[in-house]
Amino acid sequence: MKPGLFITFEGPDGSGKTTQIQMLADFLASKGIEIVLTREPGGTRIGEMIRDIILDPCHKEMAHLTEAFLYASSRAQHVAQKIRPALEAGNTVICDRFMDSSIAYQGYGRKLGERVRIINEIAVDGLVPDLTFLILVDPDEGKKRISNGVLDRLELEEIDYHTDVYEGYLELASRYPERILVIDGLRGIEEISEEIIEKTVKFLRTHRGIEI
Ligand code: ADP
Ligand code: TYD
User: Of all protein residues, whose CA lies closest to atom 5 belonging to ligand 1?
Assistant: First the structure.
């Protein structure tokens, strides 16, 4: 089956995206749907090199605008080299983070606002996900999950930033309710997975006429 579906996962750090992506991918693969799993920043050789530059803790002097352009550059390469060709070949692409991450983290978190949308619209060249699962956990819970309950000084300082990111995601969800499905990430892994699978199956039925 070749639905050519583009699914993205969004949410704060530690919201459970990686866990849920793997479960959805396993389910779809078991139904014979060919999956391309990928992530941002990264997903291509050039993108992974850009990822290393962005996430390197040594680059403390990086301007917020530089950061936004680097994420968008990684994305432009990803769309051109990997995502669009895979979709055109009929594959289902599941991507860990996409343009909404930039809107939430750079637009709201770094307060760069509309500029982030403009540079990203250029980068994605018209490509919009068919379906986005936004897994929401509050910033404190996300931090706890990734740091095992022990917050260092910097992580504590950054809580404000993560609260802005969270608000940004809520704003995006209310702006694009057709595409962005909000998932309560504070439940058990299995329960969340069941909801995501059920919504994906429903989307395939109603938008692609595919029954799985
Ligand atoms: P992300 O990719 O969004 O950063 P992960 O899937 O890597 O999130 O999950 C972060 C941590 O939280 C991992 O240790 C994972 O096992 C755990 N986790 C994932 N989902 C849940 C959940 N629903 N409840 C509790 N812990 C979870
Ligand atoms: P990663 O280790 O992939 O985090 P996670 O497992 O939470 O997805 O690191 C990616 C980081 O980059 C994460 O903190 C979110 C951030 N990010 C942005 O700020 N803007 C973006 O456009 C993207 C794609 C990610």
Answer: 16
The residue whose C-alpha atom lies closest to atom 19 belonging to ligand 1 is 16
Which pLDDT score is estimated for 153? 41
Identify the residue with better confidence: 210 or 1.
210
Q: Of 27, 37, 13, which Cα lies nearest the Cα of 192?
A: 27
CA-nearest residue, atom 19 of ligand 2:
105
Is residue 186 lining ligand 1, measured as CB closer than 6 Å? Answer: no
Burial annotation 11-32 (CB, 10 A radius, 16+ → b, else e)? bbbbbbbeebbebbbebbeeee
The alpha carbon of 121 and the centre of ligand 1 are apart by a number of angstroms equal to 30
17 CB near ligand 1 (under 6 Å): yes
Cα 188 off chain centre by = 20
pLDDT exceeds cutoff 60 at 121: yes
pTM of the model: 0.95
Asked whether the predicted pLDDT for residue 1 surpasses 70, the reply is: no
Euclidean distance between CA atoms 212 and 197, whole angstroms: 11
Task: Single out the residue of 104, 139, 123 nearest to residue 9, CA to CA.
Answer: 104
